[in-house]
């Protein structure tokens, strides 16, 4: 019955990226007829380039250029034949040089993504399991997820948490043949490292453990002969490990390499690796350049290049420390992440640096949590110390100004990254005295007339509805039933209303919007632990009703200040109560607030559609039928009308405790059956409160035989004072649902009751939209905006989908 359309993760990413493009942060176009690595030209402006991944500058080395040109001259622009049949002559020389470099057999692939796609299906058996570090590169995660089709279990693990890894090894030791842990050697966003030596110790302790490293960002600038960070830490690739390296990025050419500690793995990948067999081989120019680079790596010159880069790394580190700028990780890699927190700060600072003549990348969702954006700054051989100094001076000047202009603070920054960022001087508050925030914890502290004026037509979100919700949920003592409520009233110096909003703090199941199949799997675990994978959430409105309890006078000159103050208040509450997410929900799918939320670190999530009946002008059943399409009229005559004489329909306002208990059993049956919107079951106290409230009534359907009456279904309906009738919840006797078409009859009876009472609209809420449309409902897509404490919960659930 649920029939809920769920959010697609890629739609969320698309909106974030589209907004970043609109802010001129992503998908920029380099210009000019010449590129030297030191400068990059964008929109006619020559900028210092601090966004490269060619850390040693080898892509501009004359020897690599000559190697590429000679290869094209001798072999053409490509060698159009699968390498499985025959490799072009330069391949043998390249493979020989790379094997000489690593002193182990090596497989050459076209790029790292295809290397993962070639290696993982061969290495990982059907009885194995995979544990992914949360920050391992997307290309590893994507290749691994494809193995779910073979039944391979995949688990996401918090970043570099070896204690949790050991727990998983113990948990799955008797269930999986081998356990693969997959990580980056050097992580591409923060520039931090995998704890390789500790992982090796774990692999020795647990023979089932296999280690798989993507070290493309650790190549060339690190390790003896530029063999990379992971290889340097290991000394030699042991039998239980695999390294994926690169011939692009710092290596200066194109291509990737696979190094297996087990010779049998090497042969299997070489023989059966799908992308090796069915993808075109590297073009001659790439192989020619890679040969030239390999020769440099085998010479003493690579050490001089590494030392020259390290001197710049140390110089930049010292300048950053003296300037007290908030780096997320301090190390000797040429990758830096300067924390900015909310995206608006990151966008503004990136744009300001462009104006000052510096190009840097911005790290944003999904590579980092939406509230943990920052500037990803990289150094290379091309950067000279004078421009490194100039960049730091520009950051030192711009950073506090941008933080203040975007309403950010170091209190928020420290909380977002859970780091002290020692030495930062707090920015003076941007909150103006002409805006006052009034926060109360009961709707009874807000005037009913003011609230209802601005929340007109929002059903259970009127003053009485929120009073009912508060009283029904506040009294419970269990973790998932006791809710807290926060009402915000933002006014100017003359007490003119600017913003009005209602939020609730309650425990949500992490899979509340996950596909039903996944929720059913998780519910099996909850039979032992009812609160497994559930978290406190601060949400606009509550899980008891749909709708948007939010008003903002956007014509007021101080509305942006008021909204900024509200965001700060919510962040403070979130920290105090350690919530997993702040959720602004039930906005129209296309709304004017999206860009604003994106700048504040909220990501858009598609919500289930809401069904509203807005044409209540008919006078009788025949008039109602005329409002329907011909197909819907046929549906009514076939699937509803023949059953009406078989049942008895009553509207009851107050029932006995026994009857209310029977209603609750029917509601429980629906809740247990439908996991499309997976929430904790409402407690019986809520229904007892309904039974004593003049705003609630029950539409009850039972069999006609009064001697042996069978209760078939009940609809719990809220009577708003503002022209809208809300059939909020439903209970069904599933044993007889098909025989009496109970659900469809309840829908129609709620329309008739709303008409009798003079309501102009019916809010049927979410789910079962197909049935509701056939009775004249219009469907309205909705959207929520979510700021999560981190991406882990969302990414973990996404890993399990499919």
Automatic annotation (TrEMBL):
Pfam family, one: Aminotran_1_2
Domain of life: Bacteria
Sequence ranges assigned to domain Aminotransferase class I/classII large in this UniProt record: 110-386
Annotated InterPro entries: Acyl_CoA_acyltransferase (IPR016181), Aminotransferase_I/II_large (IPR004839), AON_synthase_class-II (IPR050087), PyrdxlP-dep_Trfase (IPR015424), PyrdxlP-dep_Trfase_major (IPR015421), PyrdxlP-dep_Trfase_small (IPR015422)
Cofactor(s) of this protein: pyridoxal 5'-phosphate
PANTHER family: CLASS II AMINOTRANSFERASE/8-AMINO-7-OXONONANOATE SYNTHASE (PTHR13693)
Full protein name: 7-keto-8-aminopelargonate synthetase-like enzyme
